[in-house]
Amino acid sequence: MTLPPFDEHLDLELGRDIALPPALLWRVWTTPALLQQWWAPAPLTTPECEMELQPGGVFRTVMQAPDGARYPTSGCFLDIVPQRRLVFSDALQPGFRPAAKPFFTAIISFDALADGGTRYNARVLHKDAIDRQTHADMGFHDGWGRCMEQMIALARTL
Known about the structure:
Layout: E1 11-18, H1 22-30, H2 32-35, E2 45-51, E3 58-64, E4 70-81, E5 85-89, E6 92-93, E7 97-98, E8 105-112, E9 118-125, H3 129-137, H4 140-157
Antiparallel strand pairs: 1-9, 2-3, 3-4, 4-5, 5-8, 6-7, 8-9
Helix pairs in contact: 1-4
């Protein structure tokens, strides 16, 4: 799978070079108990995570706010290349069943660097400019950025 070109009207993206190997970042992305520790930007938590790492397999999380409000997300994996790429979407439910209200597809890539680190990239595709703006207004860059920092901090402890 080749990444689609970035479309500034439909996509949001963040990434950086991280001084950790792809295998370690892959582990914190694909182990439910580890993903629960960093997936929601603090002070939110992720009390529930379910994933089946195969195309069509479930990717479900529940974020919870300090006031108890819960934010469930359910979708499925579309493409999995171990230690290189994860693609998931809420546009399709497990088994590739169409979702009632699709919002985004995420492409997470882990490119090995010569120094042993990883070029990490999270690109989120939306069906239209309205959904892209809604996601941006929800705090995509701040929220996904804080989650990335939490992911890195956790990975460094493993």
